[in-house]
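Subject: complex prediction, re-run

Hi both,

The earlier run crashed halfway through, so I resubmitted it with identical inputs.
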Amino acid sequence: MISSDVIRGYNDTMILYLLLNEPSYGYEISKRIRESTDEKYIIKETTLYSAFKRMESNGYIESFSGDESYGKPRTYYKITEAGKSYYKEKCEEWELTKEVIEKFILKENDNEYN
Amino acid sequence: MNIIKNYLDNMFLGLPETEDVKRAKKELLAMMEDKYNELKNSGKTENEAIGIVISEFGNLDELAETLGIKQALENKSDIIHVTYEEAEKYIEDSKNIAPKTALGVFLCIMSPTLLLLLLGLRELDALQIKEDRLIAAGLTALIALVAAGVSYFIRYSSILDKYEYLQKSVFELDYSTEQAVRSAMAQDEHSYKSAVNTSVILYILSILPIFLISLLLDIDGASTISVAVTLTIVAYATYNLINKGGINNACQVLLQQGDYSIKTKSNKTLQTISKVYWLVIVAVYLTYSFITQKWGISWIIWPIAGILYVIIKTVAEEKQ
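This time it finished cleanly. Structure:
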């Protein structure tokens, strides 16, 4: 399992990606993160909620009351236009980060390694 | 499911209840319940499901900034933490002290009965002794019983003194200790509830001697004696209630329920009122009784004061 420190800066990216096509709610998002990473990353409820609140106040997502679960209305989140462009920025940032960090990662087949 | 809710309540214990905090709590609970239900549906046992939900919950520190509770969270770490051993010892001590306190209260309530009995017998002409001698004997018995009762309180209450903070200040229990307290309370529930039932029935029946004798017979002496009978029944009912209530009361204190809820504890006005209130009632009772010598009627102050106290308490809590 990945430590949450490493991944911190990219929780937003994951959540926004999952909201790109349709609105969703807390548990569904955490479940989809767990499933699509083959349980390598499990997002904590507190992490998820604080990401929701932060992105909501930055205007990247909006919340609304959706259909009921066990008699209680669920809070759904949907992505805004600002959120979509922020998502694109984060994707570009990640490509760059990956490219930079990659230069410093030893690989088994690397010449330098031998 | 209750366990998850309790866990969450515990995490938020002592934090300000702002709209943001309430909303966060509600949404976190919804996420945890969804996860719990799905784990249960996938074949996990209740314990496994709860374990996973709690271990994946995370840490409130993460929400501190978003919810504006950073300061409150830091203060929260100053909150007293009650350990399993302390809780267990407190329940044990409360259980052992309960019969002694009960006896002390019993003696105090019984204290005027001999006086009433003697006065009643004299009014019925069954005793040919001068009234002032009777009163002297009755008052001696009264003072002796009160003294015995009070000395009991003093001797045994000192054992519970060291737990006073549990009743007065806000503290927290860890999850497993809380579960242990809940199960101790559940185990005792049957015995406690049947004691409450018995005592309530006795309290209701205790009015009968006064009503029946004064209404049907209308003889002065008989009605004075009937008050003594009523007091004896009340004394036993109260003894029974306190004696069997030790564990239940300790568990309520530990779970911060009822009179010991965090809301009541933080209400300083109410605490002051209740302290002064009972002192005033005792003073009024003794002064009135000694001056007018109407011991046969003055005891009525206790049930009235009891009902009045509940009303004052409710009003004070509403105002908060």
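The longest helix of chain A spans residues 81-102.

- K.
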